[in-house]
Amino acid sequence: MRTRIILVVLLLGISTIPTSQAGAPERLDEVGAVFGGVQINATSSANITLEFSELPAIVEDYTATWCTNCVEVEHALDDVEETNHMQQYHFHRFISENEDPLGSQEGDERWIERYEQRIPPTVIFNGTIQQVGSVPASDSLQDDYNANLQNYLDIGSGFSSLGWIPDEGNMSGVVAWNLNVDMSNFPANSTIKSSIWVVEDLAYFPDGSNGENYYHESVRAIIELGENQTGTMEITLPSAYDDNDLEIHLIHEVILPKVIDAEEEDNSEDSVEEEDSDEDGVLPSIGLLPVLALTMFAAIIVQRKQQ
């Protein structure tokens, strides 16, 4: 009997732990699209404009240098890139990270704010479709990713422009951007936030435990430009992990209006009233593991008393 109780408690604990091994494609309805991808080498002055029809699909990959199943995901992405117009962005784990040197604080904060998780490997297509893990939902990851890329963004016509003038030493410079877009193609009250993603084209890091030595297109920093569709800004670039191969990429993210339904609003008001009336009687929350431990301990005590 005691063994059964312990097994039940352990199963309850395990069931709450997220897995990074498998996951079917999931549509993200609560966040807006991600588009853009105009890029310039950070060592060169340039001004580039692309029509929306010329922009690549934006593929974000959350990864780590210790993540072995991330390697399979990234090889599959390389395969589908051969037949699709897409741009990969690899976000390496940074917060509480001891091994991987290629991530950034702002990169992790963005993933937490936008996607509410940091599970490697996770791949996001155009900001609208998420697929977690390395086990395919169909015959192969390549088939999954090709299907995900067929969900084209309907953002109308327009263009995205990026200009860049580096200072001497290439560690800072002036960036100029211009977004021509018809907001009627997006949900009412949406806004668009632009940013510069600083990307390291290739980094050599043989000390990871996933067996890889070279890492491509790592996002080393995110520099917010705000919601102005046109502007200039002086920015400072991070140091490259090695060599001198940083790029600046112009990315646009659709910010959807926050929707609060009537039931949620009523519950929020009720919660505030309860907090006001019972402020002195509120108990602090405790974590899952202490609860499971207490449950198991209590069950064993009851069993002993029954014997």
The H/E string reads HEEEEHEHEEHEEEEEEHH
Helix content, binned percent? 25-40%
Strand fraction: 25-35%
Summed up, the domain count is 1
Secondary structure category: alpha+beta
- Count of individual beta strands: 13
Count of alpha and pi helical runs: 6
What is the radius of gyration computed over CA atoms, rounded to a whole number of angstroms? 24 Å
Instruction: Report mean pLDDT, rounded to a whole number.
Output: 85
Shape: globular
Q: Trace the largest sheet across and list its strands.
A: 1-7-6-4-5
Q: Segments where pLDDT lies below 50 for 5+ residues?
A: 3-21, 272-295, 297-307
Compute the separation of the termini in Å.
11 Å
Can you describe what's shown?
The chain is an alpha+beta fold. It has one domain (13-255). It is 27% helix and 32% strand. It contains six helices and 13 strands. The protein has helices spanning 2-15, 68-81, 105-115, 141-149, 262-277, 288-306; strands at residues 26-27, 34-41, 46-51, 57-63, 86-92, 122-125, 129-132, 159-166, 172-180, 191-204, 214-226, 230-236, 246-255. A five-stranded mixed β-sheet has the order 1-7-6-4-5, with helices on one face. A four-stranded antiparallel β-sheet has the order 2-13-10-11, with helices on one face. The protein has a four-stranded antiparallel β-sheet with strand order 3-8-9-12, with no helix packed on it. Helix 1 (2-15) packs antiparallel against helix 6 and helix 2 packs across helix 4. The longest helix has 19 residues, at 288-306. It is globular.
Keyword list:
alpha+beta; 5-stranded mixed sheet; 307 residues; disordered N terminus; 13 strands; disordered C terminus
